[in-house]
Specification:
This protein has one domain. The protein is an alpha+beta fold. Strands 1-2-3 form a three-stranded mixed sheet, with helices on one face. The model has no long low-confidence stretch (mean pLDDT 88). Helix 3 links the parallel strand 2 and strand 3. Helix content is 37%, strand content 24%.
Length: 78
């Protein structure tokens, strides 16, 4: 439901979600997208509450995507 309520460019940046004590937490890949997601979630909150009346609020947290292990260079020693 969440992905269909958001524009595709924004929902593609979501790295995860969580729900606890009535609060939906949405994790986003970068700080650059977090403000945009906050506004979008504020607009669609009433629609989300229709689907799940237990939903009382939303939080946005930063959680970057993990880089693939293959091709990752080891840290250099100095």
């Amino acid at each position: 439901m969440l992905e269909s309520a958001l524009e595709p460019a924004l929902s593609a940046r979501i790295t995860g979600t969580g729900f606890e004590a009535g609060t939906l937490t949405v994790y986003i890949e970068s700080a650059a997208w977090s403000a945009r997601l906050r506004y979008a979630l504020a607009e669609c909150l009433p629609r989300l509450q229709e689907v799940d009346p237990a939903l009382t609020g939303v939080n946005v947290r930063l959680r970057p995507r993990e880089a693939p292990a293959e091709g990752r260079e080891p840290p250099q020693r100095r």
